[in-house]
């Protein structure tokens, strides 16, 4: 089969849209780069530029405490021309990354793992969108476009995660582990996806081959691959930077201890601004524990649908990460259409989406009132980030409900379409 | 037809609560009514109902015997009344249902309130020698609890709590103790008296007070109470049943009993509830309409004293008018000298054949250098800045002169700006203003008390100069504006002085509206009013309300003028340009003929500068969002915002209702075939593709159990496309030459008339009812979203556009099924014409005609605002209002095809 014409149209259109926006509004990338909704301290392109400046002048990029991203990005970005003078190559590069991500999505969708896996096959699996449509939904999502134009380095983590999923769903578990290792190396939180991803790989292995590999050994082996990939990447980074301790404390230490409380769309910054310093360590622990706890619960409860666990975990990260941005939300939204068959079971989509739309509009307005007009204050923006998180939480809870309901109807065929009350 | 059985069940069953409330017997109702009425009466402040009707032991006497009957009805506040009502209703209802209405009346009006009350007075006054007033229906609550407890005791004498046996009659005592511990201000003694009487009642000791049954029967029979009074409970339960009718288990359905007087409105309400057409079609319309009316009424209430507030200085550091102003005496000679000098130069300019003095004046090089030399002589640092703006083919250029007094007691981190433009807002020559500013510069330079730099700015006009200067001050200037060679610290406040005439003035007119409806901190305005009025004895006015007599109409008019200015968002004076940079600024304009001279204005400015000089941090204490209705009265955002939010909310309500309607309720299911979505990529571009299975309903035939899919692709594309299309007129109206504006307006009117029809003609084929409803839903959702966001930024604009868009909630495609034949076409054409009257360009033309201004000049000004000031009113008009309007018009247009 040649190149799918629809796929080419969608990908071409997405690329054209991004370049068109860049040409029509040349100041847009810089504007978006400065927005707190797009750029967080750990993904900001501006900070990357600062690190790059130091790096190309043979100073440690972590001097000055501005740059907190993985060091391997530096040699790579030093190859690109200066984005201040030549914005186009960087924009094209980021657009291509988006297309690569979309391609991974197509692979995930075409594998059909979202609707039928080893243990479970959804009831309404005929209601689904094909891969190109899902890719289109991802590529034309305004949040994705904004992230792309804002040149957030979060897109590389997205690539890692999506490729890990894509490889896992196609049965290539080695690549899945390597991709997840790459994503975890870039920003630490994808490591939480390891267990459900290993389960997904295992299920896929069992489906493909007749023999069932022993799960313990399988997990151990994959964990080893994962760890090796991280160790390898860290090794190269250490060679690059020289000082391992500085490297780790400036990147992973920064992400774990959350010292920079620049406003973002998440829930951490305001809380940690308000809290007394003596409680800081305790609540850091609590917040991280809370974030990590979802992994165990969802994995156990939805053991039969590991890909859904992964998707929901991405939704959880988009809400509860220390430095979330709209790029995390866009990643979650990208994977949601895989579960098109759950939409009929969802109950609050309209309200969740209305809440998200309100937050999308009111967020910048209140940020403006707070920072520029001076007539509002931090509570305005924080209130809106709460609404945003609320909208996402409703959506997340609703999809999980729909998935559970689908499983339940699957197990209780006589109750299909009947009212059921949870007690 | 699908029924809306899918509405989620509530945790309790509202229909049971409702039927319970509707079945309450007569006396219970009356008591509740009396309690509510007395509570409402207590709301006024003239006459204290509590003082009048509660039991106060000291005042016990023959004249105040009525208190023994009134006190159970009277409560101290809402919660007191509410809790008592909640507790009393079931008890009293039960009592009345068992004993009949007449008995209940006889007992409760008589002994059951007087006995506990009397007992309380006796104990309180003569035993305890205290004087605590009591009131409230809790006396009846405990009384009835007491009598119930005795009854329970008779049938079921003990609770067992482990080895202990507690007699059940003690339970009210526990309740009483608990209440007096948990709830503050409860009278333990009063409750105890009530329980005591309750025990007596339960034991039958009060039987003497019950009127004999024979008498009751006779009264009931003679007056035919059962026939006349609704909800009346008869004495003889055996004959007529508990409510005069036999109890049935089913709550629904009409019973043809002649005795059924209850709930005459009940079936009607139920019919409405079970009527999906009402729920999904009429109710949202009603709600939307109520929202709009409430929003408007809310705004009209604002000028009342109850909703507005007196202004006050919030920032203590300002200390307005607390210092003596020394600007007087010899400074007047300096002022005259400067004025003569400037006049001389200007006169020579006129002789040279340059422009006339009053109208077309631009300060030439000579004047500028004269200014510079004066300022330099006074010891200030002087600099100039050239700028040039082009908008709608008109070039505006000029040169700013400014000078800085460096603070003797500061570190150049903060500054105050004094602006005197050569031309005032009304394009008059501001000679006195400029001279006064020069005099003040010389005068201020000699003071040692400044802790902030003072910048004197002399722009050539009131529109462009300040904008160019302030942009450059923050390094945000466009290419054709020079950067500033000389700068100071963060600007804390700005004052603009105007004095365009030679005679003395009467009062100060204060301009405060900024670009895009942003306002300066209210403290600055208050300081100006308080210094002018309090210290200098100069009256102040605002919004060109010259004779404000503080009446409702005048206040409303002031608010309206402020709202119009805020809504249009243009710069009302040189001060407006400061606002986007979060620098609070006002313009002072002397007005009228009086006895205040330029020295008085100078002293006012001095006082203001001294106040600003005192500031320890940026003005932040007071309000940034307010509507002024008088120099000393305002409403703050919390009070006025709901009005715009209600109007914006009406669109959201409608959008949600339409969304629900497309999923739950189809008016004509036969017409919209159940289709699977075609899988094109645009079609999938939404996660909202929600679908509903009609919830199981016994009456439904299996055919309708199919999944009803909302077809979202067309509606979404149309609505998003129209919003993007709005960029086109936005671009055109901001970028063509000013000579074409009139033509462009008429062209856009024509285009507006045609575009909806074209859309309708193209889309009408295969457009299902559902799709047209979805189009409206999305369009209104976006409108509501934008307007509610806008309300937080620019209340007035949101309110005005909301009102102009209000009809869009109610326009619909007129379906061929509902109205047939030519009438439909006539109706559709008529509503199209009416809608066209509300289209953006027609409204523009109309308001231009109303205010008597030229369309071309308005649009030129608007384009100027867009280019120079950064006004974004046009974006709202073309990208929010216009798309919503086109969608509405297209929906009406569908009925033509």
UniProtKB/TrEMBL annotation, chain A:
Chief site of localization: endoplasmic reticulum
Membrane topology: Multi-pass membrane protein
Keyword Signal: yes
Signal peptide residue numbers: 1-34
Metabolic or biological pathway: Glycolipid biosynthesis; glycosylphosphatidylinositol-anchor biosynthesis
Biological processes, Gene Ontology terms: attachment of GPI anchor to protein; GPI anchor biosynthetic process
InterPro entries per record: PIG-U
Transmembrane regions listed in the UniProt entry: 177-202, 223-247, 267-295, 307-325, 345-367, 379-404
Cellular compartment(s): Endoplasmic reticulum membrane
Keywords, in A-Z order: Endoplasmic reticulum, GPI-anchor biosynthesis, Membrane, Signal, Transmembrane, Transmembrane helix
GO CC terms: GPI-anchor transamidase complex
Family recorded in the similarity comment: Belongs to the PIGU family.
Protein name: GPI transamidase component PIG-U
Species lineage: Eukaryota, Fungi, Dikarya, Ascomycota, Pezizomycotina
Automatic annotation (TrEMBL), chain B:
Keyword terms: Membrane, Transmembrane, Transmembrane helix
Localisation: Membrane
GO biological process: attachment of GPI anchor to protein
Transmembrane regions: 20-41, 73-92, 104-122, 128-145, 166-183, 189-210, 278-301, 640-660, 712-733, 739-761, 797-814, 826-852, 872-896
Stretches assigned to the Peptidase S54 rhomboid domain: 64-205
Entry GO terms, CC: GPI-anchor transamidase complex
SUPFAM superfamilies found in the cross-reference section: Rhomboid-like (SSF144091)
Chain residue ranges for the region called Disordered: 671-704
Membrane topology annotation: Multi-pass membrane protein
Molecular-function annotations in GO: serine-type endopeptidase activity
Name of the protein described by the UniProt record: Rhomboid protein 2
């Amino acid at each position: 089969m040649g190149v799918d014409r629809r796929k080419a149209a969608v990908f071409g259109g997405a690329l054209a849209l991004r370049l068109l926006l860049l040409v029509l509004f040349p100041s847009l990338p810089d504007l978006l780069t400065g927005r707190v909704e797009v750029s967080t301290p750990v993904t900001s392109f501006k900070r990357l530029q600062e690190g790059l400046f130091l790096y190309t002048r043979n100073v440690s990029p972590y001097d000055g405490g501005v740059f907190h991203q993985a060091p391997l990005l530096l040699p790579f970005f030093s190859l690109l021309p200066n984005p201040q003078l030549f914005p186009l190559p960087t924009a094209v590069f980021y657009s291509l990354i988006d297309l690569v991500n979309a391609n991974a999505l197509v692979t995930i969708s075409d594998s059909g793992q979202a609707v039928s896996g080893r243990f479970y096959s959804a009831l309404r699996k005929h209601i689904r969108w094909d891969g190109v449509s899902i890719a289109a939904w991802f590529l034309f999502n305004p949040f994705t476009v904004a992230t792309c134009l804002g040149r957030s380095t979060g897109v590389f983590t997205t690539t890692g995660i999506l490729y890990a999923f894509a490889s896992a769903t196609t049965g290539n578990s080695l690549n899945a582990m390597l991709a997840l290792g790459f994503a975890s190396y870039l920003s630490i939180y994808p490591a939480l996806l390891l267990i459900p991803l290993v389960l997904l790989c295992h299920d896929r292995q069992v489906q493909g081959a007749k023999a069932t590999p022993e799960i313990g050994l399988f997990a151990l082996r994959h964990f080893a691959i994962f760890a090796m990939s991280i160790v390898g990447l860290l090794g190269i980074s250490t060679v690059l930077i020289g000082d391992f301790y500085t490297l780790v404390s400036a990147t992973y230490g920064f992400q774990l201890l959350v010292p920079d409380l620049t406003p973002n769309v998440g829930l951490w910054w305001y809380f940690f601004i308000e809290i007394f310093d003596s409680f800081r360590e305790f609540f850091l622990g609590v917040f991280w524990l809370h974030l990590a706890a979802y992994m165990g619960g969802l994995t156990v409860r939805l053991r039969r649908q590991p890909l859904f666990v992964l998707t929901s975990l991405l939704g959880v990260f988009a809400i509860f990460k220390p430095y979330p941005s709209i790029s995390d939300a866009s990643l979650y939204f990208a994977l949601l259409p895989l579960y098109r068959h759950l939409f009929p079971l969802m109950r609050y989509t309209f309200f969740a989406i209305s809440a998200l739309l309100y937050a999308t509009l009111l967020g910048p307005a209140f940020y403006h009132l707070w920072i520029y007009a001076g007539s509002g204050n931090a509570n305005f923006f924080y209130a809106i980030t709460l609404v945003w998180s609320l909208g996402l939480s409703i959506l997340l809870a609703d999809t999980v409900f729909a998935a559970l309901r689908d499983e339940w109807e699957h197990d209780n065929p006589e109750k299909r379409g009947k009212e059921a009350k949870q007690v | 037809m699908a029924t809306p059985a899918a509405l989620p069940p509530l945790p309790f069953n509202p229909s049971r609560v409702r039927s319970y409330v509707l079945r309450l017997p007569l006396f219970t109702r009356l008591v509740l009514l009396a309690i509510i009425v007395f509570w409402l009466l207590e709301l006024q402040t003239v006459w204290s109902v509590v003082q009048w009707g509660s039991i106060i032991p000291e005042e016990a006497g023959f004249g105040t015997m009525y208190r023994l009957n009134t006190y159970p009805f009277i409560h101290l506040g809402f919660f007191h009344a509410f809790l008592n009502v909640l507790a009393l209703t079931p008890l009293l209802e039960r009592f009345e249902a068992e004993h009949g209405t007449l008995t209940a009346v006889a007992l409760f009006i008589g002994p059951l309130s007087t006995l506990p009350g009397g007992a309380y007075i006796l104990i309180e006054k003569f035993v305890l020698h205290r004087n605590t007033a009591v009131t409230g229906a809790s006396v009846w609550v405990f009384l009835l609890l007491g009598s119930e407890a005795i009854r329970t005791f008779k049938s079921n004498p003990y609770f067992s709590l482990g080895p202990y046996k507690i007699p059940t009659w003690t339970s009210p005592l526990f309740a009483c103790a608990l209440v007096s511990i948990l709830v503050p201000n409860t009278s333990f003694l009063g409750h105890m008296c009530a329980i005591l009487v309750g025990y007596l009642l339960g034991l039958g000791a009060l039987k003497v007070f019950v009127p004999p049954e024979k008498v009751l029967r006779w009264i009931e029979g003679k007056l035919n109470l059962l026939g006349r009074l609704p909800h009346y409970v008869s004495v003889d339960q055996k004959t007529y049943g508990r409510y005069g009718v036999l109890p049935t288990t089913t709550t629904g359905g009409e019973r043809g009993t002649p005795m059924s007087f209850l709930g005459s409105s009940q079936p009607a309400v139920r019919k409405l509830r079970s009527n999906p057409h009402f729920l999904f079609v009429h109710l949202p319309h009603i709600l939307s309409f109520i929202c709009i009316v409430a929003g408007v009424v809310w705004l009209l209430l604002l000028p009342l004293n109850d909703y507005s507030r007196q202004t006050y200085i919030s920032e203590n550091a300002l200390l307005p008018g607390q210092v003596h102003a020394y600007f007087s005496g010899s400074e007047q000679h300096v002022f005259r000298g400067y004025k003569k000098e400037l006049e001389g130069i200007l006169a020579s300019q006129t002789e040279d054949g340059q422009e006339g003095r009053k109208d077309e004046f631009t300060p030439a090089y000579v004047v500028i250098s004269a200014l510079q030399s004066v300022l330099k002589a006074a010891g200030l640092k002087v600099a100039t800045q050239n700028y040039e703006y082009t908008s709608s083919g008109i070039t505006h250029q000029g040169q700013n002169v400014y000078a800085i007094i460096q603070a003797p007691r500061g570190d150049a981190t903060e500054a105050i700006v004094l602006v005197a433009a050569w031309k005032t807002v009304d394009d008059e020559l501001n000679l006195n203003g400029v001279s006064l500013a020069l005099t003040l510069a010389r005068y201020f330079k000699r003071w040692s008390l400044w802790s902030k730099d003072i910048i004197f700015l002399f722009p050539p006009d009131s529109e462009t100069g300040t904008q160019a200067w302030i942009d450059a001050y923050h390094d945000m200037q466009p290419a054709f504006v020079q950067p500033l060679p000389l700068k100071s610290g963060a600007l804390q406040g700005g004052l603009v002085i105007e004095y365009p005439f030679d005679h003395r003035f009467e009062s100060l007119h204060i301009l405060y509206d900024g670009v895009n409806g942003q306002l300066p901190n209210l403290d600055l305005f208050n300081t100006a009013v308080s210094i002018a009025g309090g210290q200098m004895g100069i009256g102040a006015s605002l919004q060109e309300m010259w004779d404000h007599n503080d009446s409702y109409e005048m206040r409303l008019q002031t608010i309206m003028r402020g709202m119009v200015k805020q809504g249009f968002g243009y710069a009302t004076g040189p001060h407006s340009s400061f606002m986007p940079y979060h620098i609070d600024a006002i313009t002072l304009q002397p007005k009228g003929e009086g006895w205040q001279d330029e020295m008085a204005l100078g002293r006012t400015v001095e006082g203001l500068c001294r106040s600003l000089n005192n500031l320890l941090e940026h003005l932040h204490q007071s309000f940034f969002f307010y509507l002024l209705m008088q120099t000393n009265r305002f409403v703050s955002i919390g009070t006025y915002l709901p009005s715009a939010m209600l109007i914006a909310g009406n669109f959201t309500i409608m959008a949600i209702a339409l969304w629900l309607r497309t999923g739950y309720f189809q008016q004509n299911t036969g017409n919209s075939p159940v289709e699977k979505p075609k899988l094109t990529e645009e079609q999938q571009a939404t996660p909202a593709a929600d679908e509903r299975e009609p919830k199981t309903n016994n009456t439904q035939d299996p055919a309708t159990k199919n999944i009803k899919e909302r077809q979202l692709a067309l509606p979404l594309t149309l609505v998003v496309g129209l919003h993007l299309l709005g960029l086109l007129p936005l671009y055109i109206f901001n970028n063509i030459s000013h000579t074409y504006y009139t033509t462009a307006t008429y062209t856009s009117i024509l285009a507006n008339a045609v575009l909806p029809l074209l859309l309708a003609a193209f889309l009408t084929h295969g457009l299902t009812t559902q799709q047209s409803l979805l189009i409206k839903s999305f369009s209104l959702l976006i409108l509501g979203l934008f307007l509610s966001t806008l309300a937080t930024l620019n209340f007035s604009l949101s309110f005005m556009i909301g009102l102009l868009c209000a009809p869009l909630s109610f326009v619909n495609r007129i379906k061929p099924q509902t109205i047939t034949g030519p009438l439909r076409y006539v109706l559709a054409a008529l509503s199209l014409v009416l809608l066209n009257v509300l289209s953006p360009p027609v409204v523009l033309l109309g308001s231009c005609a109303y205010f008597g201004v030229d369309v071309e000049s308005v649009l030129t000004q608007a384009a100027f605002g867009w280019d120079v000031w950064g006004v974004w009113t046009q974006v709202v008009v073309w990208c929010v209002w216009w798309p919503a309007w086109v969608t509405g018009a297209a929906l009406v247009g569908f009925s033509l095809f």
